[in-house]
Design brief:
single chain, alpha+beta, Heat Shock Protein 90, 2 domains, two-stranded antiparallel sheet, 7 helices, about 55% helix, elongated
């Protein structure tokens, strides 16, 4: 009887010890998982900072080149402008060539202006704006391109409007660039779905704000290979055919997002589409 009681007590002690060890293992696993997640976030942030630093250096170099080229183009365009004013005196074919040359020169100047704008710092003309209103404005301008590309739009805005501090024109340019990229990516399959999602989420250490407005642009195109993703925000880098792109759209987009205190990243798997993610400091909602 005494031995039986002793055995029962020993079994209880063993069960208690087993339960304690199990709980300890669970706590340890939870701690390890938490540390792994934090380390992953830190590594991702570090990669973004390195990339941003690299792009900033490249941006300054590109701006210097753009400034010099712009100076050289100024007298050329001035001369073309004067010639175009008297183009009626030329043969129709020559007059058309003059007009094409003038328009090409103007496009070059616009491209150079984009690069120079990228290199300028400051938060001039920032105001509190509704993210979804800027998005809808961009989408309205792209309505024809969406229909032509047979792209179905899926908007997931949520019920509450969200506000960020931004330059409305620059933010519209960012959204327009990302939408155009998504539409172009789905050309191969002659259409697809573009999903735009807006959420307010915890910062997680990526942006200097307690919460961020997260805007996701997801397409179901062919996806982006890793070697392209690594260079996708570099100036003059493009995978489009000659004459279809300058390689500046995403470079400018990256610069504008950074000027607004935010971050932009891309997640993509070949064959499964792409998602561009923008995080901007959250200013509130009304």
């Amino acid at each position: 009887m005494i031995n039986s009681t002793k055995n029962d007590e020993q079994l209880k002690e063993l069960e208690l010890l087993k339960a304690q060890n199990l709980q300890y293992a669970k706590d340890l696993a939870k701690t390890f998982k938490g540390r792994k997640e934090v380390r992953g976030k830190l590594e991702k942030t570090q990669e973004q900072l390195v990339r941003s630093d690299k792009l900033a250096t490249m941006g300054q170099m590109a701006a210097g080149i753009a400034h010099e080229v712009n100076n050289m183009l100024t007298p050329v365009l001035a001369s073309l402008y004067m010639i175009e004013k008297i183009k009626d005196k030329f043969e129709p074919e020559l007059a058309e060539i003059i007009q094409i040359a003038n328009e090409s020169g103007k496009r070059a100047v616009d491209m150079l202006r984009d690069i120079l704008d990228y290199s300028r710092k400051g938060s001039e003309d920032f105001e509190e704006v509704y993210v979804t209103k800027i998005l809808d404005k961009s989408l309205n301008l792209l309505n024809f391109k969406l229909k032509k590309g047979r792209v179905k739009l899926n908007k997931k805005y949520g019920d509450d409007p969200v506000i960020v501090s931004a330059n409305p024109g620059q933010l519209e340019q960012v959204f327009t660039n990302l939408c155009i990229n998504a539409i172009d990516a789905m050309k191969e399959k002659e259409g697809g779905i573009l999903e735009i999602r807006v959420d307010v989420v915890d910062d997680g250490g990526s942006v200097k704000s307690a919460k961020v407005v997260q805007i996701k642009f997801t397409d179901d195109g062919p996806g982006i290979p890793e070697e392209v993703r690594e260079r996708i925000f570099e100036p003059f880098y493009t995978t489009k055919k000659e004459g279809e792109g300058t390689g500046l759209g995403l470079f400018i987009t990256h610069g504008i997002v950074e000027k607004h205190g935010g971050l932009i990243s891309v997640d993509s798997t070949v064959g499964n589409g792409s998602t561009f993610v923008i995080n901007l400091p959250y200013k509130g909602g009304q």
